[in-house]
């Protein structure tokens, strides 16, 4: 089969590799029908995730068809269409019992495209299939469901739920890329009074308006901190969400939060960021980090199936599976191409 293989920072190729096989009785082999590229994949290619080694097939999001299932798999069978979650869960360890699947101790967590071969391929082996794939809801396009493999649950859980968004809150989202837009869309479910999107690109700020932001700030021309304080009587945001993964974005996010506010970090950081405790220790702030657990995926699937969330709005570009190099070029140059999420299909 063909797959997108990582060969060290800045190097990848679409090449022939062995087709995966069932290795354990809980495995499923899934034929990949639709797959996307994540901002985390770009961080890997920058060298920000050293656990990803030469020869690893990238990718952790897919919709596909079960081709084979191990003897222990009970919830899906060959021929079923499924969502392959970015998080794999053993289902029995301490953290899985707490629905903290991202911290799985039994061989799961974020392993696809990280510790084992991933989904940017014609086929993928999914361990613990009973707890790591979801049947597709009837009548929902595959590309819409694909957005629930990672981006929507990440924005919702790590941004909105960790940030404790409540009705009437002012929510500031630093970074209007795909994950920031997912946080904006998720925040709207809790009826905040304002959602402020902050970015350096006008095109992404325009997209943020379509996803639910009622105020935008281009931080290359405007003072985001002054803008948010003007909106809040000088206090700052109730919830500030970091969705970039660079030190400057994190430091701005902390500054945006009001005393007693919540700061939710979603961004994947590859370098240290400063936390000025000499300024923050007295402000009663709460800072959260997190890897998505995907416990919210069933809820989000119901919301998408019920047309309460328009997940397909994320998709801006379509490619065939053999166009991975072109798709990466478009996705990584989003400021020029306007790409939010790219979808590659058979």
From TrEMBL:
Where in the numbering of this chain does the Enoyl reductase (ER) domain appear? Answer: 10-344
Q: Which cofactor does it need?
A: Zn(2+)
Which keywords does the record carry?
Answer: Metal-binding, Oxidoreductase, Zinc
Q: What is its EC number?
A: 1.1.1.-
Question: GO: which molecular function terms?
Answer: oxidoreductase activity; zinc ion binding
| A Pfam family of this chain | ADH_N
Write down the top EC class of this protein: oxidoreductase
| Record keyword Magnesium present | no
TM region positions: none
Family label? Belongs to the zinc-containing alcohol dehydrogenase family.
Question: Which PANTHER family has this protein been placed in?
Answer: NADP-DEPENDENT ISOPROPANOL DEHYDROGENASE, ZINC-TYPE ALCOHOL DEHYDROGENASE-LIKE
Stated name of the protein: Alcohol dehydrogenase
* Species name: Actinomadura coerulea
């Amino acid at each position: 089969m063909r797959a997108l293989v990582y060969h060290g920072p800045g190097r990848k190729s679409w090449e022939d590799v062995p087709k995966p096989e069932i290795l354990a009785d809980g495995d499923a082999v899934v034929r990949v029908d639709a797959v996307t590229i994540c901002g985390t994949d770009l961080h890997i290619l920058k060298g920000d995730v050293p656990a990803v080694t030469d020869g690893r097939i990238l990718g952790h999001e897919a919709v596909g068809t079960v081709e084979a299932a191990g003897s222990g798999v009970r919830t899906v069978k060959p021929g079923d269409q499924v969502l392959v979650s970015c998080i794999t869960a053993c289902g029995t360890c301490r953290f899985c019992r707490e629905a903290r699947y991202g911290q799985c101790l039994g061989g799961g967590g974020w392993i696809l495209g990280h510790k084992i071969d991933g989904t940017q391929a014609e086929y993928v082996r999914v361990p613990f299939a009973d707890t790591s794939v979801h049947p597709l809801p009837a009548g929902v396009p595959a590309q819409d469901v694909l957005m629930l493999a990672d981006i929507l649950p990440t924005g919702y859980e790590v941004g909105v739920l960790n940030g404790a968004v409540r009705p009437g809150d002012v929510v500031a989202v630093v970074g209007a890329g795909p994950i920031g837009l997912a946080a904006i869309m998720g925040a709207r479910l809790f009826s905040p009074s304002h959602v402020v999107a902050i970015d350096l690109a006008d095109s992404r700020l325009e997209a943020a308006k379509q996803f639910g932001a009622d105020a935008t700030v281009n931080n290359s021309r405007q003072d985001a901190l002054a803008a948010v304080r003007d909106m809040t009587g000088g206090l700052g945001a109730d919830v500030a969400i970091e969705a970039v993964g660079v030190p400057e974005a994190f430091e701005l996010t902390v500054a945006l939060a009001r005393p007693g506010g919540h700061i939710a970090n979603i961004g994947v950081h590859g370098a240290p960021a400063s936390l000025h405790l000499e300024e923050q220790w007295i402000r009663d702030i709460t800072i959260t980090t997190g890897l998505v657990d995907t416990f919210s995926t069933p809820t989000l699937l119901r919301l998408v199936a019920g047309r309460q969330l328009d997940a397909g709005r994320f998709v801006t570009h379509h490619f065939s599976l053999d166009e991975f190099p072109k798709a990466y070029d478009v996705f990584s140059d989003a400021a020029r191409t306007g790409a939010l999420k790219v979808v590659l299909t058979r």
